[in-house]
Design a protein that fits this description.
The protein is an alpha/beta fold. The protein contains twelve helices and ten strands.
Amino acid sequence: MNPSNAARKANALFSTPTLSRRQMLGATAGAVAALGQGSGWAQSAFPSKPLTILVPFTAGGASDIGARMLAPELSRLLGQSVVVENLAGAGGAIAMQKLIRSPADGHTLLYGGLSESLLIPMINPAVNYKVEDLMPVALAGASPVVFVVRPDFPANTVDELIAMARKSPGRLSFGSAGIGSFAHVMTEVVKERASVFMVHIPYRGGAQILTDVIGGQLDLAVTTVTNAAPMIAAKRVKVLGVSSKARVALIKDVPTFGESTALKGMEMQVWAMLFTPKGTPEPIANQLSSAINTALELPAMKAMRTKLGADLPYLLNATQAREFLQAEQKMYLPVTRRIKPE
């Protein structure tokens, strides 16, 4: 499927009147009213014991911050303690494998991102889990990516970058945090859409990429607005475009990919979702979804997303979260089939 068509399909799923933000908020509020505030959530059989949110990375990252902000609010709503457990390693596979081995009773969740939840298992069967092993219950947030180059780079827009790549195939390089990372796969989608070839340079993590772009060892960095923000503010890098549907306030003068000729209509985001193991009963998944969505709308959670440069474009119940994940899988499947694991 053409990536832009898949993206439009995903957008259509969550922009129809039945899935509008206002109605989702109303549905969430109705669930809260039905169950009662605070300990009222615990009047049903679930939850019957403390909950755990697994984070596939070390403390201090965006996933960890999001999970730790969410945990006390879920505890208040569900009437049970909620513990965050960091299980870093193997690109997120260790935490993912623990989740799918856990009882499918809703007491173990995982705060997972695009790379470890969807892209890596699509590319590398050796990680021993599949996206089908996961049951999404809520979208936690989303962030666009930016194309970043050094200040004296000849191109000033995405279209000019594409023109350079077409003129000299293989001359330009881009870096990512490894094979199967969001930066790698998203750029492969862009390359396919624009019919260009740029050399992929995988790193063992993303910290060095922007440094090498500034130093001229690498032409292009593909990263989130949050990661690039300090260097953008210091004018140490130049931003060519942002992958969001609308321009981002923090870099309001930077056009979107969709505004370009080469990538017209394209929209991509790095997202985070809350998952439970496959087979979690629907009533429990729906109860978790309602509680999570209620917590995500609190002022403190909104402020956290703003600080992290993330957004919550729509609230999704458990069924809609599955539809969202399926649409994302369709968009990335053609590219991931051609990527060989390390």
